[in-house]
């Protein structure tokens, strides 16, 4: 068995990557991780976003302005699986270190696969490092989830509350919304447009509206067999209710119950209406309308309003 991933879920942030990963992971031939948010707390799920490629990019001099992560992240991410290799920096040539890290990443992916035929990993920041990914894994299959930017902004707002970077009752301001739109969402759109390869794109809204068709398309793209019963089972076992059953008891909630301190949210389509004014919604839509139209055309994305 080759020690490498077979596919990557490369974006977008706050757009349902854990949900899609969980759906795929419920296929008997597909392992996809993470299916729950990463946690550093003792006793909690450790298999989280690896951030491998955006950390590896720092070895070639990429800085935080490119959304690369500091090389030091290799010393502690995913329970320190890269720590011993990262400690070789300065002791071996960077070219050799790079290959050692790539080998360890492949081994880690296969280990997470648990013997399944295909294994994939989801880290939304990979959308900014598509060429690096291709240089290491030519023709690797890539999946991207596109979501209404207004709901993305709301989801990130609650993610900051979860991380104690915002107060629980702090409102979602226009300055915050437009800043996140410019510094993250618009950059993700541009990364998709700048990329010359193929990415299987789907929308969060489409996955909600027509789950069977979208999941069938995903499984066909990955080249594995399926049946109507299997597709239905994959979707059912990846629901918010089923996923919350898997979270550690310390999250203090019942299955399916919202918890503002959890990384899992129900992700209701159109939830932005409860947190963003109509006037701000118009500003957000107008700011990225052109980019979204280009993406819809380039990747032939259905269920994507401009």
Uncertain parts: 42-46, 249-258
Order of helices and strands: EHEHHHHEHEHHEHHHHH
Strand-residue fraction?
5-15%
Query: Taking Cα atoms only, what radius of gyration do you get, to the nearest Å?
Result: 19 Å
End-to-end distance, in Å?
43 Å
Separate helix tally = 13
- How would you write the strand order of the largest sheet? 2-3-1-4-5
Class, according to the CATH hierarchy?
Alpha Beta
> What summary fits the major beta sheet?
5 strands, parallel
Give the rounded overall mean pLDDT: 89
Structural notes for this entry:
- This protein is α/β, with parallel strands linked by helices and 306 residues long.
- The protein has one domain: P-loop containing nucleotide triphosphate hydrolases (Rossmann fold), CATH 3.40.50.
- It has 13 helices and 5 strands.
- It has a 5-stranded parallel sheet.
- Helix 7 packs across helix 8, helix 8 packs parallel to helix 13 and helix 10 crosses helix 11.
- It starts with 6 loop residues before the first strand and ends in a 7-residue tail after the last helix.
């Amino acid at each position: 068995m080759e020690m490498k991933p077979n596919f990557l879920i490369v974006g977008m942030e706050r757009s349902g990557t854990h949900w899609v990963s969980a759906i795929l992971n419920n296929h008997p031939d597909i392992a996809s991780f993470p299916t729950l948010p990463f946690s550093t707390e003792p006793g909690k799920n450790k298999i989280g976003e690896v951030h491998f490629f955006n950390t590896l990019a720092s070895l070639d001099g990429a800085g935080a302005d490119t959304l690369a992560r500091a090389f030091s992240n290799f010393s502690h991410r995913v329970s320190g699986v890269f720590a011993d290799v990262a400690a070789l920096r300065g002791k071996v040539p960077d070219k050799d270190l790079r290959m050692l890290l790539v080998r360890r990443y492949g081994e880690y992916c296969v280990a997470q696969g648990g013997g399944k035929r295909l294994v994939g990993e989801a880290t939304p920041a990979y959308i900014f490092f598509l060429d690096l990914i291709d240089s290491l894994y030519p023709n690797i299959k890539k999946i991207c989830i596109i979501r209404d930017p207004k709901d993305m902004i709301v989801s990130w707002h609650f993610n900051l509350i979860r991380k104690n970077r915002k107060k629980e009752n702090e409102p979602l301001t226009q300055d915050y919304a437009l800043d996140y739109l410019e510094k993250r969402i618009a950059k993700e759109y541009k990364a998709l447009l700048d990329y010359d390869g193929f990415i299987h794109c789907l929308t969060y809204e489409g996955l909600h509206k027509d789950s069977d068709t979208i999941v069938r398309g995903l499984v066909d793209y990955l080249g594995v067999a399926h049946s109507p019963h299997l597709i239905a089972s994959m979707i059912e076992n990846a629901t918010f209710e089923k996923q919350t059953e898997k979270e550690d008891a310390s999250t203090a909630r019942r299955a399916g119950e919202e918890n503002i301190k959890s990384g899992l949210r129900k992700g209701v389509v159109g939830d932005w209406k409860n947190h963003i004014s109509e006037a701000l919604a118009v500003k957000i839509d107008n700011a990225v309308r052109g980019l979204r139209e280009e993406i819809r055309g380039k990747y032939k994305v259905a269920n994507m309003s401009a």
